[in-house]
Amino acid sequence: MSFWSDPELQPKRQFRWLMEINGIPSWIVKKVNKPSFEISEATHKYLNHTFYYPGGIEYQKSEITLVDPLSPDATALILQILTDSGYRIPVTDEVTNTLSKASAVRALGEVRISQLDAGGAEVDAFTFVNAWISSAKFGDLDYEGDGLIDLTMSIRYDFVTMATHGSIDGILTGPVAGAPTATATTGTDNTVFDDI
After folding, report:
1. By CB atoms within 10 Å of each CB, which of 11, 23, 59, 99 scores lowest?
2. Hey, which bits of the chain come out as E strands?
3. Confidence (pTM)
4. Low-confidence ranges of the chain (pLDDT < 50)
């Protein structure tokens, strides 16, 4: 049967998703880049030929756009995450706090993107492992504009895990909404690093 004649088949849609970040309501998250990675390469030249070999994998930063309501104040939430990561304003020379990976990961908490079907059921989910805020921009002000204020933040993470319905050839997939399957992990483990 062709896919266009089966009304039960449906594609994933850009607007059917939720993002969970510790302390940040999902309804203020407007846009997010799904995880992405790049694999480095080594080359070997022989005569007039070039041969390529895969190297290490590096996950790219993910950018998140939030609307900034009066309540909850998204700017204040992000600044609180920065404080909880270990940053302190140097009001005296006795302030010696610095950021650590462990505190930055704890401050941001679990970061998860869920994609939904038309009925609102989760069809797959990415969990960002050891995620922390690497940058934030608090938006622009303009006397000639009447739009909503957006802020953006980038998160850095070590790798992602993905849970989805069923299985895909060659990929272990994990449980979604109670489905009894395994989890695809693209990394070594789910350990949060100690203070370093």
Report:
1. 11
2. 17-21, 29-32, 37-46, 49-59, 62-67, 111-116, 122-129, 132-137, 150-156, 159-164, 184-185
3. 0.76
4. 169-196
